[in-house]
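Give me structure tokens for this 125-residue protein.
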Amino acid sequence: MLVSNFMAYITKEGNGVIRFIENDSVKKVIIPKGDQVPKQVFDLYHGQLSSFKNRHYAIAKWIVKDIRRMGYEFKQMPMSKGIYLPVKVSEGINENFNEGSSRTEKLRLLWNEVERISQKLESIK
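Here you go.
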């Protein structure tokens, strides 16, 4: 899989776009202006492009990494195979536990999981 020619830009509508070429086909990651968290990350790094001598590859990598860190995944649009959008993922308790977590962090995650399950049960009733 050959990925090249990264370009990060803002459309006329205000959406952020990361365009790249993968195996001779153009693909895009679209960051909608209505989704505040990913858009703020995009704007933060996009504003620093000139400071990093227009290294679009590095900026795109940091944007994607930070958006994923905030609980988003990039899903391919069903109708357009070359377009990806960030989608918020509800995390389960097992995904958040690791050996480095403190006891307080583990208790907080358990409490959040209990609250999430309780809300689901209430919506079923």
